[in-house]
Amino acid sequence: MYNKFIMYGKISRVMLGDLIIAFSKALDYVDRTVANHHLRVAVIADRIAETLNLTRNDRVTIFMAAALHDVGVFTLSEKLQLSECDFINTREHAERGYLLMKDFSMFTEVADVIRYHHVNWDEGSGQFAEGCPIPIGSHVIHLADRIDTLINRQTEILKQKDSIVKAIKSRLNSCYIPEIVEAFCEIAQKEYFWFDVSSPEIDETVSDLCILPQQEVSVHELAEIAKLFSHIIDYRSNFTAVHSAGVSAVAGLLAQLIGFSEVERRMMGIAGYLHDVGKLSVATELLEKPAKLTDEEFNVMKSHVYHSYRILSSVKGLDTITLWAALHHERMDGKGYPFRLTGNDIPLGSRIMAVADVFTAVSEDRPYRKGLSEKEALLLIEVLGNNNALDKDVVRVAANCISEMNDVRLGIQVRAQDDYLAIRQTTV
């Protein structure tokens, strides 16, 4: 089945919409009680935006922002609090989401919408925040988010619609713009709306909207998106905040020295940024546990590479990058996971990624240990190479450039740490 893992470096047509859907789903992996929350909010928001007769460009922006609206939520406890509580101070995670996305040209408008998606209308004073006009999309998502949290997934949906409409109307003018509530009430009369937002077939519902951006991304744009999502992946913990940046830089350097083409080297950097995307399924509390993991906890941690594979493989055209990224815990002797591949069945890019990941990880501080020195890290990967866990040839290349490799890692991680602190210390 998995002989498809033997691949060469190539990149096909990758669409922005496919990336948005994949990462939107990944944001909700951490707990099944919030599964597909982002996409449901996006569907609700688009139905309201359509009823309001907003332009297609506005609808696309609103859909993208809704699909990613909680990117600034870093812990499971915060996510569950948002889904279970009524109206609490939620502006900090919205501001973090804005700061994460604002400098990426493809997401500038989306960032503005995310920034204000928890601002109450407050009799009209919510038209502005800090002197800036609030996009109407922010108010649409604010309402859509609340509608989704009011739905009880254990109860028949049509039985709930009147009570949900009543709850929303009770916040008319205080929390929500009357015109937006009116649009919601209009669409709420139609049964299909409720069946759509409660259906487990959310992919089909999204496809029917025909609202995903029909935009192909270049390798450069894909690298920017991958960097953005590495921040979302890593910023949830102080101990992993700059990990993917380091892996990306080290893997790219090794690929270059081994003779990969320039395009393949850039693909390796992208794979490095995305290799731990499956860790969105692992609670921050587990990532930061200061003691040895139990067997059950380690099994949860091991699952992250499987989820990386599934998340990335859902994006058409990303095949090679998916394999280079997601197979970084496979081992030459077959004792890795999750596919138990051996030797040359593991793509060379994945073997490079494995060395880059181990070297970077052991060089970093963790809750339960201090990072190793350059010399100690080299000794460890050489032992793993000699024991046929890591590829001996890749380890040999790493040993010959260990100082350069460490300098590259440190350089990019110092810059990444500054970016992380600017966002993590955000207060509103």
Summarize the structure.
With 428 residues, the protein is mainly alpha-helical. 60% of the residues lie in helices and 1% in strands.
Describe the structure.
The chain has 428 residues and is mainly α. It has two domains: 31-209, Hypothetical protein af1432; 219-424, Hypothetical protein af1432 (Orthogonal Bundle). It has helices spanning 16-27, 37-51, 56-67, 76-84, 91-101, 108-115, 136-150, 161-169, 178-188, 191-198, 202-209, 219-234, 243-258, 262-274, 284-287, 295-313, 319-326, 348-363, 374-386, 392-400, 402-424, and strands at 128-129, 132-133. The chain has a two-stranded antiparallel ribbon. Strand 1 and strand 2 (132-133) form a beta hairpin. Helix 2 (37-51) packs antiparallel against helix 3 (56-67) and helix 6 (108-115) crosses helix 7. The chain is elongated. It starts with 15 loop residues before the first helix and ends with a helix. Mean pLDDT is 92; it is low at 1-8.
CATH fold description of the largest domain:
Hypothetical protein af1432
* Number of helical elements: 21
% residues in beta strands: under 5%
Structural class: mainly alpha
Give me the CATH architecture of the largest domain, please. Answer: Orthogonal Bundle
The major pleated sheet works out as:
2 strands, antiparallel
Shape: elongated
